[in-house]
Amino acid sequence: MKLNFRTAGSVAVFALLSFNACAQAPVPHQGPYLPPALRSPPPSTPASGQALRNEAMDKLKKRFQEADLDANGSLTRDEAKRAGLGFVDNHFEEIDSAGRGAVTFDDVRKFMAQRGK
Fold first, then answer.
1. Among candidates 108, 30, 115, 103, which has minimal Cα distance to 68?
2. Tens place of pLDDT for every residue, the chain, 117 residues?
3. Residue 86: is it exposed, middle or buried by C-beta count within 10 angstroms (0-12/13-18/19+)?
4. In the chain, what's the furthest Cα-to-Cα distance?
5. Which residues contact 79 (CB under 8 A, 6 or more apart)?
């Protein structure tokens, strides 16, 4: 069997490519011991009491601010409806006791506090 230079070069290239294809990243340790660096942090303790109320108000305030499309600090009924703030939409007249056509986050917070008593 006679090999010419082109054939020998092709064989060498294929050999190198085959070698690289066989090289794989090491498989992570699957045993019962997991190194500390790979452990996930323990789940945080769920909030309760005042911490839970604060967390809920923070989320509501964030959603309120995102719904405020014109960034004027208040929501119209249409903005509340488009943002999916059903509570504000359903109680809009009660929250907007002054009849301004818009409610602020403070108005919503006060309404919720009165309603909770």
1. 103
2. 555 555 655 655 555 555 555 555 555 555 567 777 777 776 777 767 888 888 989 999 999 999 998 889 999 999 999 999 999 999 999 999 999 999 999 999 999 999 875
3. exposed
4. 99
5. 67, 68, 69
